[in-house]
Amino acid sequence: MSPVERQFNLLENLELQFGAQTFFAKLHKTDTCGSNGLPLTPNSIIIYGKAQILKNIKHKHLCQYLDIIRGKHERLIVVSQFSGEPLTNYIRKDSLEVGDKICIAQQIILGLHELHKREIVHRYLCSENVLIQKDGSVKLFNYGLYHMTNYGKLISFPLIQLLYAPPEVYLENLDFFLCAFCFQTIIICTPGIGIILCELALEKRLWHNLKLGQRIRKILSLIQSNGSVFERIAREHNCFEQYLELAPNFRDLIEDCLKVYAKDRPTTEELLQRDIFTLENATEIGTPSRSSFQVFTLTEFYHWWQLAGGDVFLELKKQGLLRSSPPILSLPGLILNDGTTLGQERNPATLHDPRIVPMPLDALHQRFAHIPLSSYYPLVFSKSHIIKKFEAPTYDVTNLPLVIRERDPEYQFHRVILLRKLLYGYPYTRDMIVEEAEIDIPPLLRGDIWMALLDIKGDYEREYVQIDKETQTTTDRQIEVDIPRCHQYNELLSSAEGHKKLKRILKAWVYKNSNYVYWQGLDSLTAPFLYLNFNNEAKAFACLSTFVPKYLHKFFLKDNSSIIQEYLAKFSQLIAFHDPILANHLQDINFIPELFAIPWFLTMFSHVFPLHKIFHLWDKLLQGDSSFPLHVGLSVLTQLRSRLLESGFNECILLFSDLPDIDMETCVKDSIATYIITPKSITARQHQNEMYEILDADFVSNLVSRCPRISTNNLVDMVRTCPIEVLVIDIRSTKQFNICSVIGSINIPLESVKLEEPFVENLGIHSNLLTENTDKNIVIVSTEDAAMETFAEYLLKCGVSRVCSLSGGFNNLLPIFPTILIPQNQI
Amino acid sequence: MSTEDKVFIFTHDKYGFETTITIPFEGSIQEYVYILITHHDLPIYIADKIFSQLSKFISESSTEFYDNVTTSLIQKSKGNLIDIDEITKEWEKIFREEMTEYGERRCASDEELFATAYHKLVHSPALETMLQLEHTYALTVKEKCDEKDRQICDLSNRQTDEMSTAVDQLEKGVTESDINELATKHFEDQTLMQVQLQSEIDTIKEAQKREYREWLMQMLEQSQANNSLPTPKHSPVAPIPPMIPTKSYRNSKENKVSHPILEESFTVHLGSQLKQMHNIRILRANVMNLCSITDNSLEPTPQSLQTALGLYSNELSGLVLIHDEIGGSKLTQDFRKICQSSTEFHFPHVDDQLERISHLQQQLRKDSDLKSRQNTKHLQPGDFYITRHSNLSQVHVIFHIVSDDTLKGGDINSRHPVVLGLRNIVKTACSNDITSLTIPLLLNYEMSEDMTISWCEKRAELVFKCVKGFMIEMASWGGSDLKNLQFMLPEGISSEVFQSLTEMLPRIFKVSNPLILKSSK
Question: Is ipTM > 0.95 here?
Answer without folding.
Answer: no
